[in-house]
Amino acid sequence: MRQLPWREVPLQHRTREQGHGRREIRRLKICTVKPGLLFPHAVQAIEVKRRRTSRTTNKTTIKTIYAVTSLASQATPERIAELICGHWQIEALRHVRDVTYAEDASRVRTGTAPRAMATLRNVAIGLIRQAGWTSIAAATDHYRSRTDHALQLLDLEA
User: Fold this and answer.
1) N or C: which end of the chain has fewer CB within 10 A?
2) pLDDT average, residue stretch 93-112
């Protein structure tokens, strides 16, 4: 993917965002790929360069990611950028579930139990965020030791 002629491909989409203590610029380039790429149904290759600057340290990092898609002309650069961002949001939630709730170490592995546990964790994270917490780990510790507060969060009184 890196060896595609990205320097010759024009910039097709750019976003600027601020939040979470950083400024971020994302640049997106898309090119049509020829058959024979290692991804059998790939129609387009995508390069995303993400430049993040911390507002506290003023340190800048640049990360480049590559992706492929089987979407052709029906996917505009704006839509592809939206899909990539949506994927990162899912990965962020998955990271929270693993770090805070040790999901990867869970021994629940059979039937529908893993999906049910992931759903319960997602509900817990959603309720915690709705209550205004910014740290899921801190909120989990808080509610673990104060079950009466957890019941209030659910609008259930003991």
Assistant:
1) C
2) 85
How far does Cα 91 stand from its chain's mean position? 4
Is residue 138 within 8 A of residue 145, CB to CB? The reply is no
Q: How far apart are CA 23 and CA 25, in angstroms?
A: 7
- CA atoms of 138 and 132, how far apart (whole Å): 12
Q: What is the 3-state secondary structure (H, E, C) of the chain?
A: CCCCCHHHCCCCEEEEEEECCEEEEEEEEEEECCCCCCCCCCCEEEEEEEEEEECCCCCEEEEEEEEEECCCCCCCHHHHHHHHHHHHHHHHHHHHHHHHHCHHHCCCCCCCHHHHHHHHHHHHHHHHHHCCCCCHHHHHHHHHHCHHHHHHHCCCCC
pLDDT in tens, 134-153: 888 899 999 988 888 888 88
Please state, in angstroms and as integers, the Cα–Cα distance from residue 149 to each residue in 13, 53, 64, 124, 152, following that order. Answer: 46, 38, 43, 13, 5
Portion of the chain with pLDDT greater than 90, in percent: 35
Question: Rounded to two decimals, what is the model's pTM?
Answer: 0.58
pLDDT tier at 100 (50, 70, 90 boundaries)?
confident
pLDDT at 14: 94
CB count, 10 Å around CB of 44? 17
